[in-house]
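User: Predict the complex.
Assistant: Input components as received:
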Amino acid sequence: MPGAIYAEGLVKTFGNVRALDGVDLEVPEGTVLGLLGPNGAGKTTTVRCLTTLLRPDSGKAVVAGLDVLKQPDAVRRSIGLSGQFAAVDEYLTGRENLQMVGQLYQMKAKAAKARADELLEQFNLADAADRTAKTYSGGMRRRLDLAAALVVSPPVMFMDEPTTGLDPRNRQQLWEVIKQLVSGGTTLLLTTQYLEEADHLAHDIAVVDHGKVIAQGTSDQLKARTGGERVEVVVHEREHIQSASALLDKYSLRGAGQGDTTVEDHMRKITTPVSGGAKLLAEIIRDLDTNGIEIDDIGLRRPTLDDVFLSLTGHVAEAKDDEDTKETAK
Amino acid sequence: MSAVTDTVRVTAPGNPVGRSIRDSLVVARRNLIRMARIPEMLIFGLFQPIMFVVLFTYVFGGSIQVGSSSSTQAYREFLMAGIFAQTVTFATAGAGAGIADDMHKGLIDRFRSLPMSRGAVLTGRTMADLVQTALTLVVLAVVAVLVGWRTHENFGKVLVGFGLLLLLGYAFSWIGALIGLSVRTPEAATSGGLIWLFPLTFISNAFVDANQMPSFLRHIAEWNPFSATVQACREMFGNLPPGFQTPDAWPMQHPVWASLIWSVLIIAFFRTLAVRKYRSAA
Ligand SMILES: Nc1ncnc2c1ncn2[C@@H]1O[C@H](COP(=O)(O)OP(=O)(O)OP(=O)(O)O)[C@@H](O)[C@H]1O
Ligand SMILES: [Mg+2]
């Protein structure tokens, strides 16, 4: 059985923009997939195709066991969506907004109202419940929109950049809500620009660029792809940069496809790929000391998702540029 | 446990018609709340027709001949049906701007992702516009009475006249709905909803006796859907001027039927197009 969300070869073009160029995804039931990618990569378009808002030119999509193209209405009963831009009615109060959404999910007026009150409480909007959304701050609107996506706690949820514009405390709280939902069996596809968020919430991460999934896996798998640990040294004296760099080269894994020793002159910082962990670090410190190189800082750095993101999407962009130049050169 | 599962699964309601009506009412209610909170819309919507009533009665009133009469009172009574009809068609701009605004703000996306009836967002909007049109008509009728407009038929017929006006307004709000879904901004929807209304309402019998137009324009005016309602209202209100010769064109001979048929056709045609457009809106 395919996962709660399944997409195969989704293609969508707008005029001559190929927004989706064959997106393949699979999200097992009860898990979170984080969709990462630079601006314009096709994240929102993917979400819109999977939530019946946009009809892909070709490809297949299954959500909650239902064919998105053939049974859109049944799909809508099984999903909750919070789009990239908060979609709330500015002239309705917070409560009225949620109650309306509840009723349109075919709840009875009274049940919809009770549910609205619950959600307002959960999203820290109880105090503002009877004010029109026009008077809400950006973050409050965002929370109201998220609450609207959760009105019926549907089995499959889509959130397009849910925490953009939220302050740290509200972001934390939303993370808690999401974790609760997922522990209750909800499947979630979330797009985000915050790699920390994907690291924190997502079981699986898919990196999208130019309308294609260019890498997918757990956060650890992706980090492993980008390479292992690095040692970072900041020397005290500018004239020691050369000697420190030569010294670090001895420990470097360069040549093993792990990149090279890099020097950032203005910060007096030298970085090199290594393997060996804390033991190696101690060794390097001793070596630097015996050579009379005074240091301000030294540390072992593991790749972050930021590194993964930059190396994956940066690399693709370069490769494409190379192709372009080759073609024009011919 | 059952409390949780109750909210988790949304069941498909058995009766699609019932669901459609219910969803439309939810959306209509939402739009009415909005209207109540933005009363400027209703008030500005009244300026233009009231200005027309005053301008046409006091400025042109004495100089326009209708039927065989050029009395100010005859023109005043003749004129009101025209202004009423023109006013109800302004619902086009209201519906158009409202729906374009919803598109712009992402609300249409929200609605389209919900398991609600496909036509309900538009039906709810046009229903709310109908309420607004009715309120506008009431105010306008009072102003008309104040400047000397009188009806000369029984109450039932007068009600039929107003009923036809409301139906025409409802039909035109569906044209507005289609415009609203087709343009990018609410401003464009407003002007797109109004520009063509002026030629439509002026090449009609609304402000002048079409019998006095050149024959080419007269034919257009006689078959103009808008003229049918105006003519029907004049008959229902007893506002036809003395010596008025009813044109031979079928819609002018049977204006009540013609008005009904035109409005129903407009609704059927534009509702179909608008709902189709809504379903595929990107
Ligand atoms: N309705 C549309 N008409 C034309 N082009 C569109 C439309 N929607 C998206 N695109 C184009 O498709 C591409 C993918 O857009 P999409 O919104 O999916 O990106 P995204 O990954 O969500 O970006 P962001 O991080 O900025 O939100 C972009 O080049 C965009 O310009
Ligand atoms: Mg986006």
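The first helix of chain A runs from residue 43 to 50.
Let me know if you want any component modeled separately.
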